[in-house]
Design the sequence.
Protein backbone atom coordinates (compact mmCIF):
# COMPACT_ATOMS: atom_id res chain seq x y z
CA UNK A 1 0.00 0.00 0.00
CA UNK A 2 1.32 3.46 -0.91
CA UNK A 3 2.48 5.79 1.87
CA UNK A 4 1.68 8.82 -0.27
CA UNK A 5 -0.97 11.04 1.40
CA UNK A 6 -4.42 11.32 -0.18
CA UNK A 7 -6.51 14.46 -0.53
CA UNK A 8 -8.83 14.81 2.47
CA UNK A 9 -11.71 15.85 0.18
CA UNK A 10 -10.94 13.36 -2.61
CA UNK A 11 -9.64 10.18 -0.89
CA UNK A 12 -8.83 8.50 -4.19
CA UNK A 13 -6.32 11.15 -5.23
CA UNK A 14 -2.69 10.98 -4.13
CA UNK A 15 -0.94 14.28 -3.42
CA UNK A 16 2.22 15.66 -1.90
CA UNK A 17 0.76 19.11 -1.21
CA UNK A 18 -0.70 20.10 2.14
CA UNK A 19 -2.60 23.10 3.46
CA UNK A 20 -0.21 25.61 5.01
CA UNK A 21 -2.83 26.32 7.69
CA UNK A 22 -3.99 22.90 8.91
CA UNK A 23 -1.57 20.48 7.26
CA UNK A 24 -4.22 18.33 5.55
CA UNK A 25 -3.23 16.88 2.15
CA UNK A 26 -4.97 18.54 -0.84
CA UNK A 27 -5.09 17.75 -4.55
CA UNK A 28 -4.76 20.36 -7.29
CA UNK A 29 -8.51 20.96 -7.45
CA UNK A 30 -8.58 21.84 -3.75
CA UNK A 31 -5.58 24.17 -3.74
CA UNK A 32 -6.00 27.88 -3.19
CA UNK A 33 -2.91 30.02 -3.68
CA UNK A 34 -2.70 32.39 -0.71
CA UNK A 35 -0.15 35.18 -0.12
CA UNK A 36 1.70 32.74 2.13
CA UNK A 37 1.53 29.09 1.09
CA UNK A 38 -1.25 27.00 -0.40
CA UNK A 39 -4.47 26.55 1.55
CA UNK A 40 -7.34 24.07 1.55
CA UNK A 41 -10.91 25.19 0.71
CA UNK A 42 -11.85 25.30 4.40
CA UNK A 43 -9.15 27.76 5.31
CA UNK A 44 -9.35 29.76 2.10
CA UNK A 45 -13.12 30.25 2.27
CA UNK A 46 -13.65 28.40 -1.02
CA UNK A 47 -16.76 26.26 -1.10
CA UNK A 48 -17.18 26.40 2.66
CA UNK A 49 -18.84 28.51 5.32
CA UNK A 50 -16.79 31.37 6.70
CA UNK A 51 -16.97 30.08 10.26
CA UNK A 52 -13.60 28.93 11.49
CA UNK A 53 -13.20 25.18 10.99
CA UNK A 54 -12.03 22.99 13.80
CA UNK A 55 -8.33 22.45 13.97
CA UNK A 56 -7.30 18.98 13.01
CA UNK A 57 -4.45 17.03 14.43
CA UNK A 58 -1.71 16.61 11.88
CA UNK A 59 -1.22 12.97 11.08
CA UNK A 60 2.13 11.60 9.99
CA UNK A 61 1.15 11.70 6.26
CA UNK A 62 0.02 15.31 6.70
CA UNK A 63 3.29 16.30 8.34
CA UNK A 64 5.13 14.47 5.59
CA UNK A 65 3.18 16.37 2.96
CA UNK A 66 3.85 19.70 4.65
CA UNK A 67 7.58 19.08 4.63
CA UNK A 68 7.49 18.93 0.84
CA UNK A 69 7.52 22.72 0.73
CA UNK A 70 11.23 22.48 1.51
CA UNK A 71 11.74 20.42 -1.66
CA UNK A 72 12.30 17.10 0.14
CA UNK A 73 9.58 15.48 -1.93
CA UNK A 74 10.42 17.25 -5.19
CA UNK A 75 13.28 15.07 -6.41
CA UNK A 76 12.92 16.02 -10.07
CA UNK A 77 13.15 19.73 -9.32
CA UNK A 78 16.23 19.28 -7.16
CA UNK A 79 17.76 16.92 -9.71
CA UNK A 80 17.22 19.37 -12.56
CA UNK A 81 18.83 22.18 -10.56
CA UNK A 82 21.85 20.01 -9.78
CA UNK A 83 22.15 18.88 -13.42
CA UNK A 84 22.04 22.46 -14.71
CA UNK A 85 24.70 23.54 -12.22
CA UNK A 86 26.96 20.61 -13.12
CA UNK A 87 26.63 21.33 -16.83
CA UNK A 88 27.44 24.98 -16.20
CA UNK A 89 30.54 24.03 -14.22
CA UNK A 90 31.70 21.87 -17.12
CA UNK A 91 31.18 24.71 -19.64
CA UNK A 92 33.08 27.04 -17.30
CA UNK A 93 35.96 24.55 -17.19
CA UNK A 94 35.98 24.28 -20.98
CA UNK A 95 35.37 28.00 -21.50
CA UNK A 96 36.96 31.23 -20.36
CA UNK A 97 35.90 31.54 -16.74
CA UNK A 98 33.02 31.64 -14.29
CA UNK A 99 31.04 34.16 -16.33
CA UNK A 100 32.33 33.05 -19.72
CA UNK A 101 31.16 29.49 -20.31
CA UNK A 102 32.15 27.90 -23.59
CA UNK A 103 34.01 24.98 -25.05
CA UNK A 104 32.87 21.99 -27.05
CA UNK A 105 29.83 21.20 -24.89
CA UNK A 106 28.51 24.73 -25.23
CA UNK A 107 29.27 24.87 -28.95
CA UNK A 108 27.69 21.53 -29.75
CA UNK A 109 24.69 21.91 -27.42
CA UNK A 110 23.46 25.47 -28.00
CA UNK A 111 20.34 26.00 -30.08
CA UNK A 112 21.41 27.27 -33.50
CA UNK A 113 18.94 26.97 -36.36
CA UNK A 114 21.62 26.82 -39.03
CA UNK A 115 23.37 23.91 -37.31
CA UNK A 116 20.11 21.98 -37.26
CA UNK A 117 19.49 22.76 -40.92
CA UNK A 118 22.98 21.83 -42.14
CA UNK A 119 23.98 19.02 -39.77
CA UNK A 120 20.61 17.71 -38.60
CA UNK A 121 21.43 18.44 -34.94
CA UNK A 122 17.87 18.14 -33.65
CA UNK A 123 19.15 17.16 -30.22
CA UNK A 124 19.94 20.86 -29.72
CA UNK A 125 16.26 21.48 -28.94
CA UNK A 126 16.87 19.58 -25.69
CA UNK A 127 20.54 20.21 -24.87
CA UNK A 128 20.13 23.99 -25.07
CA UNK A 129 17.79 23.74 -22.05
CA UNK A 130 20.75 22.81 -19.84
CA UNK A 131 23.21 25.49 -20.98
CA UNK A 132 23.48 29.02 -19.64
CA UNK A 133 25.27 32.10 -20.92
CA UNK A 134 26.50 33.48 -17.58
CA UNK A 135 26.52 32.89 -13.84
CA UNK A 136 23.73 35.45 -13.38
CA UNK A 137 21.66 33.72 -16.08
CA UNK A 138 22.08 30.40 -14.29
CA UNK A 139 21.34 31.86 -10.84
CA UNK A 140 18.07 33.50 -11.86
CA UNK A 141 16.86 30.44 -13.72
CA UNK A 142 17.75 27.98 -10.96
CA UNK A 143 16.12 30.15 -8.30
CA UNK A 144 12.92 30.26 -10.36
CA UNK A 145 13.11 26.54 -11.13
CA UNK A 146 13.46 25.59 -7.46
CA UNK A 147 10.88 28.07 -6.20
CA UNK A 148 8.19 27.32 -8.78
CA UNK A 149 9.13 23.76 -9.72
CA UNK A 150 8.78 22.50 -6.15
CA UNK A 151 5.14 23.62 -6.04
CA UNK A 152 4.21 22.27 -9.47
CA UNK A 153 5.98 18.94 -8.95
CA UNK A 154 4.10 18.41 -5.70
CA UNK A 155 0.81 19.21 -7.44
CA UNK A 156 1.31 17.09 -10.56
CA UNK A 157 3.64 14.38 -9.32
CA UNK A 158 7.24 13.77 -10.33
CA UNK A 159 6.76 12.01 -13.65
CA UNK A 160 4.08 14.41 -14.87
CA UNK A 161 6.27 17.31 -13.83
CA UNK A 162 9.21 15.94 -15.82
CA UNK A 163 6.94 15.50 -18.83
CA UNK A 164 5.75 19.09 -18.44
CA UNK A 165 9.31 20.36 -18.08
CA UNK A 166 10.68 18.73 -21.21
CA UNK A 167 7.64 19.48 -23.36
CA UNK A 168 7.75 23.13 -22.29
CA UNK A 169 11.48 23.25 -23.00
CA UNK A 170 11.03 21.81 -26.48
CA UNK A 171 8.13 24.18 -27.14
CA UNK A 172 10.40 27.01 -26.02
CA UNK A 173 13.13 25.86 -28.40
CA UNK A 174 10.60 25.74 -31.23
CA UNK A 175 9.44 29.25 -30.37
CA UNK A 176 13.02 30.48 -30.28
CA UNK A 177 13.67 29.07 -33.74
CA UNK A 178 10.44 30.55 -35.07
CA UNK A 179 11.24 34.10 -33.94
CA UNK A 180 15.00 34.29 -34.44
CA UNK A 181 17.42 34.25 -37.35
CA UNK A 182 19.21 31.05 -38.38
CA UNK A 183 22.53 31.98 -36.74
CA UNK A 184 21.15 33.16 -33.39
CA UNK A 185 22.56 31.26 -30.40
CA UNK A 186 19.94 30.42 -27.76
CA UNK A 187 20.60 28.73 -24.42
CA UNK A 188 18.86 28.46 -21.07
CA UNK A 189 16.12 26.75 -19.10
CA UNK A 190 13.83 29.76 -19.47
CA UNK A 191 11.44 28.08 -21.88
CA UNK A 192 10.85 25.21 -19.46
CA UNK A 193 10.54 27.64 -16.54
CA UNK A 194 7.93 29.68 -18.40
CA UNK A 195 6.13 26.38 -18.92
CA UNK A 196 6.12 25.93 -15.13
CA UNK A 197 4.64 29.42 -14.78
CA UNK A 198 1.94 28.38 -17.23
CA UNK A 199 1.34 25.29 -15.12
CA UNK A 200 0.83 27.46 -12.04
CA UNK A 201 -1.71 29.54 -13.96
CA UNK A 202 -3.73 26.45 -14.87
CA UNK A 203 -3.53 24.97 -11.38
CA UNK A 204 -4.56 28.24 -9.77
CA UNK A 205 -7.50 28.58 -12.14
CA UNK A 206 -8.64 25.03 -11.40
CA UNK A 207 -8.44 25.77 -7.67
CA UNK A 208 -10.09 29.22 -7.66
CA UNK A 209 -12.05 29.52 -10.91
CA UNK A 210 -10.25 32.77 -11.71
CA UNK A 211 -7.17 33.77 -13.68
CA UNK A 212 -6.76 36.96 -11.63
CA UNK A 213 -4.26 35.60 -9.15
CA UNK A 214 -0.60 35.41 -8.26
CA UNK A 215 0.34 33.21 -11.20
CA UNK A 216 -0.98 35.66 -13.79
CA UNK A 217 0.78 38.54 -12.04
CA UNK A 218 4.05 36.60 -12.10
CA UNK A 219 3.65 35.84 -15.81
CA UNK A 220 2.80 39.45 -16.73
CA UNK A 221 5.81 40.76 -14.79
CA UNK A 222 8.20 38.31 -16.43
CA UNK A 223 6.81 38.94 -19.91
CA UNK A 224 7.27 42.67 -19.38
CA UNK A 225 10.93 41.99 -18.56
CA UNK A 226 11.20 39.72 -21.59
CA UNK A 227 10.12 42.48 -23.96
CA UNK A 228 12.02 45.24 -22.14
CA UNK A 229 15.46 43.65 -21.78
CA UNK A 230 17.50 43.14 -24.98
CA UNK A 231 19.04 39.82 -26.04
CA UNK A 232 16.30 37.74 -24.43
CA UNK A 233 14.62 35.02 -26.50
CA UNK A 234 11.04 36.25 -26.80
CA UNK A 235 10.07 33.23 -28.86
CA UNK A 236 11.62 30.86 -26.33
CA UNK A 237 9.66 32.37 -23.46
CA UNK A 238 6.35 32.55 -25.32
CA UNK A 239 6.74 29.04 -26.72
CA UNK A 240 7.51 27.59 -23.30
CA UNK A 241 4.57 29.42 -21.71
CA UNK A 242 2.07 28.16 -24.29
CA UNK A 243 3.48 24.64 -24.14
CA UNK A 244 3.28 24.61 -20.34
CA UNK A 245 -0.31 25.86 -20.25
CA UNK A 246 -1.50 23.28 -22.77
CA UNK A 247 0.47 20.42 -21.21
CA UNK A 248 -0.74 21.17 -17.69
CA UNK A 249 -4.35 21.40 -18.83
CA UNK A 250 -4.02 17.97 -20.43
CA UNK A 251 -2.27 16.43 -17.42
CA UNK A 252 -4.54 17.95 -14.76
CA UNK A 253 -7.88 17.78 -16.56
CA UNK A 254 -7.46 14.17 -17.66
CA UNK A 255 -5.46 12.97 -14.65
CA UNK A 256 -8.24 10.73 -13.36
CA UNK A 257 -9.79 9.93 -16.74
CA UNK A 258 -9.88 6.51 -18.32
CA UNK A 259 -7.58 5.49 -19.84
CA UNK A 260 -4.98 7.00 -17.51
CA UNK A 261 -2.66 7.47 -20.48
CA UNK A 262 -4.95 10.03 -22.11
CA UNK A 263 -3.29 13.06 -20.49
CA UNK A 264 0.29 12.02 -21.31
CA UNK A 265 -0.82 11.13 -24.85
CA UNK A 266 -2.15 14.65 -25.35
CA UNK A 267 1.12 16.05 -24.02
CA UNK A 268 2.97 13.92 -26.58
CA UNK A 269 0.84 15.56 -29.28
CA UNK A 270 1.87 18.99 -27.95
CA UNK A 271 5.51 17.91 -28.21
CA UNK A 272 4.90 16.68 -31.76
CA UNK A 273 3.28 20.00 -32.69
CA UNK A 274 6.34 21.82 -31.30
CA UNK A 275 8.65 19.66 -33.39
CA UNK A 276 6.54 20.39 -36.47
CA UNK A 277 6.88 24.14 -35.83
CA UNK A 278 10.64 23.75 -35.47
CA UNK A 279 10.86 21.61 -38.62
CA UNK A 280 8.87 24.07 -40.73
CA UNK A 281 11.05 26.95 -39.55
CA UNK A 282 14.32 25.10 -40.22
CA UNK A 283 13.11 24.03 -43.66
CA UNK A 284 12.37 27.68 -44.47
CA UNK A 285 16.11 28.44 -44.29
CA UNK A 286 16.68 26.63 -47.58
Sequence:
Amino acid sequence: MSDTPHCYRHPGRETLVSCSECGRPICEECMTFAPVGIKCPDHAGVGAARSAPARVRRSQPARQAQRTIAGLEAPATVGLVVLNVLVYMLTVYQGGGVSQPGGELFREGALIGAAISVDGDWYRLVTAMFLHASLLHLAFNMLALYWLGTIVEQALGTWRFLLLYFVSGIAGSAGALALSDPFAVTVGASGAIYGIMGALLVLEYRATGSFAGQALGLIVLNLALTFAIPNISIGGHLGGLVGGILATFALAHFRYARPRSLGPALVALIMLASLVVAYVRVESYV
